[in-house]
Write a structure and sequence with these properties.
By secondary structure, this protein is an alpha/beta fold. It is built from 24 helices and 29 strands. A hairpin with a 2-residue loop joins strand 13 and strand 14 (366-371). Helix 13 (477-488) crosses helix 24 (752-767), helix 20 packs across helix 22 and helix 22 (679-704) runs parallel beside helix 23 (722-734). It starts with 5 loop residues before the first helix and ends with a helix.
Length: 768
């Protein structure tokens, strides 16, 4: 990575040990020439691993004897140009040293909102070209003062070659404006921060110019302010992200493990999903119906100073209307945020690239990235052995939670989270970022990879790019999920196939139907479908993904038929709800196969169960809401104490495909409804029964296929559900499987582009 202080660290260690030589960058990485006693050189290598800068990454250290002449003393030499692999570091949260400076009255950067060094600060969000130096960033208009220039040129200073270096004399400045008339308050930076904090404390909603875009902030303890934000932002129920001053403030509201505390305090400083459990409670409107809160710590000096002054948790959500891209252009703030916020705390440093906050959850005793963005992207992912021979590939990702991926010289460069491409402005931003990454990483693809679904925006876009010059490779949606899991786990290119278990919403299947609960025998190049959840009609097509009751009606029709349901469960409230729907039309759709495609979707199964429990029936306010509410209900008590899970049945389809049949589960759940069993207990039994069925089918497939595999790869958006993921993984390990799962990249569609790139690279290697 460039600009992370690696060469100065080498310089300091070498000088401390009295070694002679030099350090410089070349096309492969960092070259260090050292001369001295052998034990000092060995000590140097040890210290280099232990004392590497927090934003650097050492993949390997290769050594060989040097027979030339070394320089007197030790120096930092100019980098070699030509063919260098540029690597831009992710934006990093304020480090401890800079945090100490901004709260120290004796420091020249006291209360300066743009303090940074080589260990922290903006990177991807300010760069617009290569090489990565100040002239190629949005810091170019700010000429360094004499004192900053001295720090920048001193290898012994932690700001040596820190491109965003700044201070109150020469750097960006804050200003506070009202959004009623657009007039800027002519006060100093310190007064602007203090005034913004007072406004938040008084219940106002503010727009804040953050690292990768504008954010909307209000007092999270003020229920009226939170409700106003929901109404004005048009965000009915999706949970808001929170920012706390420190870990002690987080512990007032959430249980916090040591691992979660380390994540919050790390340079990436993601939003971490935490269990609600503490002496204090936030308004229900912060995360309606959920038992988790997404907290992060201050990411910049601006945020640190602001939250310290407010001294309460602050909502810190993206500055946009729901489903639109986050605002980054100052000129758009009055038009797009003026109806939401009363004031804007802004500054005069331009944002070059939109980057959202990363989202992480600890599951199965490991951090799992659910949204890969600020603090993580664009750190390259080293591909498994064998992929270095692959030509450059560009993978376009999916339609929702979109990312793209560049494959180059055995590394995958995954973009930050782009969003849902149903929005035209988001699609435009996606295309701009593709062009930026191509420039930053000097990437010219020799092939393109897309999802097989012809109506995905990414698929249509790739076809316009492809023309007659670039080969276009189509990757099946669920195969790409499996390949992404294999790639990030370092699974070798030519290793034996695994059983990929993919549980998600929808993806186009080989038969033209909708898949979403799949068991695939797969490697990087090939796959074969061995099993699935039993398909059920999606009544109304895509409308069924928005209205959970449609899936419940279809599941009941498949499991027992309406007449039997009415005969046995007429006294249930859910019967009256469904009976009021246009059943004749719905039945005709199913019987004639009109606008009712069959789907083996695990996501739609969760939707149906949420509708049964009354948690989410008419309409989902955001994607995955029904499943999240079912998980939250099950979290009310230990799943293992819920007794037996609802039984599913393993059956064989007419074509011989093994399927998980949910009919017995529905009968048992409906009987529990009649008996007045609490929804939380029913939700726990549902999770437990589904996990048992998945593990049982995996074991049966292993036996029926002559033990071709003993490794399972878990992927798909349903594995964001902590209970389901941990229950399935535990059972599979108990059955003797090695279990691979996602950690570095999202298990949801945000990881698809990595899998597509792996598939494309593997196929091209085979073609020679």
């Amino acid at each position: 990575m460039q600009g992370v202080g690696f060469r100065p660290t080498v310089w300091r260690i070498a000088r401390r040990l009295g070694l002679a030589g030099e350090v410089y960058n070349d096309s492969e990485g960092v070259v260090v020439i050292v001369g001295g006693a052998s034990n000092d050189i060995a000590d140097f290598i040890t210290r280099l691993r232990c004392e590497a800068p927090p934003l650097s990454r050492i993949d390997t250290i290769e050594t060989r004897p040097f027979t030339g002449e070394t320089t007197q003393g030790f120096r930092i030499a100019d980098s070699l140009r030509g063919g260098a692999d540029t690597q831009i570091a992710p934006d990093a949260a304020i480090c401890a040293a800079c945090a100490d400076e901004v709260v120290d009255p004796s420091s020249r950067r006291y209360r300066y909102a743009f303090t940074n060094c080589t260990h922290c600060g903006p990177r991807l969000t300010i760069v617009h070209g290569v090489p990565y130096d100040r002239t190629m960033t949005t810091m170019a208009p700010f000429a360094m003062c004499e004192e900053c220039a001295r720090e920048y040129a001193d290898p012994g200073d932690r700001r040596f070659h820190a491109q965003p270096i700044a201070c109150p004399v020469c750097g960006p400045r804050l200003s506070l404006a009202t959004l009623e008339n657009g007039s800027f308050d002519l006060v100093g930076a310190q007064d602007a921060l203090a005034a913004a904090a007072r406004l938040i404390g008084a219940g106002e909603i503010l727009a804040i110019k953050g690292l990768g875009g504008y954010q909307l902030a209000c007092d999270a303890t003020n229920e009226t302010a939170v409700n106003h934000l929901r109404h004005r932002k048009r965000r009915d129920a999706k949970p808001f992200a929170l920012m706390a001053e420190d870990l002690a403030m987080v512990r007032n509201y959430c249980r916090l493990s040591e691992e979660e505390a380390e994540l919050l305090s790390s340079p990436s400083a993601p939003i971490v999903l935490l269990e609600v459990k503490g002496p204090l409670r936030l308004p229900r409107a912060v995360a309606p119906g959920l038992n988790t809160l997404g907290f992060m710590l201050p990411t910049t000096p601006l945020h640190l100073l602001l939250v310290r002054a407010v001294s309460r948790p602050v909502i810190m959500t993206s500055g946009n209307w729901s489903d639109e891209p986050q605002v980054i252009d100052d000129a758009e703030v009055p038009r797009r945020l003026g109806a939401i916020a009363s004031h804007v705390l802004t500054h005069n440093r331009r944002i070059a690239t939109r980057v959202d906050d990363s989202l992480v959850r600890v599951m199965d005793e490991a951090p799992r990235v659910l949204r890969r963005a600020r603090g993580s992207a664009p750190t390259p992912i080293r591909m498994p052995s064998g992929f270095r021979q692959a030509p450059p590939v560009l993978a376009f990702g999916g339609h929702l939670k979109a990312t793209f991926c560049l494959l180059k010289k055995g590394e995958a460069i995954l973009s930050q989270h782009q969003g849902d491409l149903e929005d035209a402005a988001t699609l435009d931003d996606y295309q701009r970022n593709q062009k930026l990454f191509a420039k930053l990483f000097e990437h010219s693809p020799e092939a393109l990879v897309v999802d097989r679904h012809p109506q995905y925006a990414t698929s249509r876009l790739a076809r316009t790019y492809s023309g007659a010059n670039l080969p276009l490779i189509e990757a099946q949606h669920h195969h790409a999920h499996v390949a992404a899991c294999l790639a990030e786990n370092g699974y070798p290119l030519d290793a034996s196939p695994v059983l990929g278990i993919v549980l998600d919403g929808v993806g186009l299947g080989d038969d033209g139907g909708i898949w979403g609960g799949e068991f695939l025998l797969a490697d990087y190049r090939d796959y074969r479908r061995l099993g699935s959840l039993k398909p059920a009609p999606m009544l109304g097509g895509e409308q069924a993904a928005r209205e959970p009751w449609r899936n419940l009606y279809a599941q009941i029709a498949m499991a027992m038929g309406w007449r039997a349901f009415a005969a046995d469960y007429r006294e249930l409230e859910v019967y009256n709800f469904l009976d009021a729907k246009p059943r004749e039309t719905l039945d005709a759709m199913m019987n004639r196969g009109i606008n009712a495609p069959l789907a083996s979707s695990c996501g739609r199964l969760f939707d149906a169960f949420a509708a049964l429990l009354g948690l989410c029936r008419d309409r989902q306010a955001y994607e995955g809401q029904a499943g999240a509410l079912v998980e939250a209900a099950a979290s009310g008590g230990p799943v293992r104490e819920a007794g037996p899970g609802y039984a599913f049945k393993i059956v064989s389809s007419a074509t011989g495909l093994a399927q998980i049949e949910p009919a017995p589960m529905w009968r048992a759940a409906l009987q529990d409804c009649c008996s007045g069993v609490l929804p939380g207990l029913m939700a726990a039994r549902f999770h437990k029964g589904l996990a048992e069925a998945v593990a049982e089918l995996a074991a049966r497939l292993r036996e029926s296929h002559a033990r071709l595999f003993d490794t399972v790869a878990l992927s798909g958006g349903c594995f964001q559900n902590r209970i389901l993921f941990e229950e399935i993984a535990r059972r599979l390990r108990g059955a003797g499987f090695a279990v691979l799962s996602h950690a570095q990249v999202p298990t949801n569609d945000g990881g698809l582009s990595l899998g597509q790139a792996a598939i494309g690279g593997a196929l091209l290697i085979r073609q020679g």
